[in-house]
Amino acid sequence: MRCWRKATGCWSALAARGIVWFAIAAALQLVDWTPLSAVALNVAIYAVTIPLSWRFRGSTGPVAFVRTRFDIPLRALTAALVVAVVTAASSRIGSFASGMFAIFPIILGSSIVIMHPRIGGKATASMMAHVQLPLIGLALGFLVVHYLVAPIGVWPALAVGLAVSLAWSSLLLVLRLRQQRRQQAISASPTAS
Questions:
Q1: pLDDT digits (tens, 9 = 90+) for 59-90
Q2: What is the mean pLDDT of residues 109-133?
Q3: What is the DSSP letter of 193?
Q4: When comparing pLDDT for 29 and 3, which is higher?
């Protein structure tokens, strides 16, 4: 019974967030966006959400995680199903709605549905909170692609956009490793004891 309540809570929370996501996406479609206004909106959103989610970034300790043979196929099937539905409907719903359907249900939704019952709410919340900083690199990559498609073509622009996103994630990794080394040095120093 407890496991059922846990799963029900996950699904109801995910459904509520999905409704909010699509309501905001519908409202955003009413605005005539420029790259500068889109960047400004992203900066404002990240300026609010990153500090709000900071408390979830703490270590949750080791999590007992039993992987089943259905985990990866289930996520792949979920992603393939949503991609097929969005692709089939994209000519009718437009590129904006297609993007909104693809990002939330595929990336976030399938991750939450698979991880929450297996590792619990705290660890899943920590995983989602840690995703925000790398998503800044994804937004930067999209911006680069937007400006480079016309002058250099689709594939080279996508390659540069991917490189920007990977460079951002690499920078975050280097900063994280430096922070960990600094914390280890502090805890190993004789004055720390």
A1: 655 566 666 777 778 777 877 777 777 777 77
A2: 77
A3: -
A4: 29
Residue for token pair 């009718």: 92
Could you tell me which residue, 186 or 155, shows the higher pLDDT?
A: 155
Q: 128 near 112, Cβ under 8 Å?
A: yes
Structure-token pair, residue 3: 């496991």
Four-point Cα dihedral 110, 56, 52, 138, nearest 10: -50
Side-chain half-sphere CA neighbours of 85 within 13 A: 11
Range list of β-strands (E), 84-181 = none
Q: What is the pLDDT of residues 38-51, one digit of tens each?
A: 889 889 988 998 88
User: What token pair was written down for 126?
Assistant: 């920590």
**Separation of CA 40 from chain center:** 19
What's the pLDDT at 170? 94
Cα–Cα–Cα angle for 180, 185, 186, nearest 5°?
Answer: 100
Residues 6+ apart with CB under 8 A from 141: 161, 162, 164, 165, 168
Residue 80 phi/psi, 5-degree rounding, is -65, -40
Whole-prediction pTM: 0.66
Residue owning tokens 């120093």: 189
Domain boundaries, the chain: 1-31+64-119, 33-59+121-186
Q: How confident is the model at residue 6 (pLDDT cuts 50, 70, 90)?
A: low
* Nearest CA-CA partner of 122 in 68, 58, 75: 58
